[in-house]
Amino acid sequence: MSELSRVKMRCRRGMKELDVVFGRYLQNHYPTAGDDEKQYLEELLDLQDPLLFGMVLGIDPVPLQYESLIVKLRQAHD
């Protein structure tokens, strides 16, 4: 299984909204993402959906290391 296939499977969440956000991110940003960004994505995918969705919507605080990735996820949401 390729890295992209594995990440796509992990991006399938329990919330349709997150599926859309991650799907757009994978299409628009993942191919050019650096190693750090890919690692941060893996870490975010370990979080529970409500917290992750709260970060994307700006309801929950975002740890500093994830800010640029969350910005890209928010852009994918628009």
In the CATH scheme, the class would be Mainly Alpha
As a whole number of angstroms, the C-alpha radius of gyration is 11 Å
Oligomeric nature of the chains = single chain
Number of individual domains: 1
Helix content: 55-70%
Largest sheet: none
Q: Tell me the number of helical segments per DSSP (H or I, 4 or more residues long).
A: 5
**What is the tally of beta strands?**
0
Shape verdict: globular
Return the CATH topology.
DNA polymerase, domain 1
Contiguous uncertain segments of 5+ residues: none
Q: Tell me the fraction of residues in β-strands, as a range.
A: under 5%
Structural class: mainly alpha
N-to-C series of helices and strands: HHHHH
What does this structure look like?
With 78 residues, this protein is mostly helical. It has a single domain (3-77), classed as Flavinator of succinate dehydrogenase (DNA polymerase, domain 1). Helices cover 67% and strands 0% of the residues. Helix 2 crosses helix 5. The radius of gyration is 11 Å and the shape is globular.
Compile the SSE list and pairings:
Blueprint: H1 3-11, H2 16-28, H3 35-44, H4 49-57, H5 67-77
Helix pairs in contact: 2-5
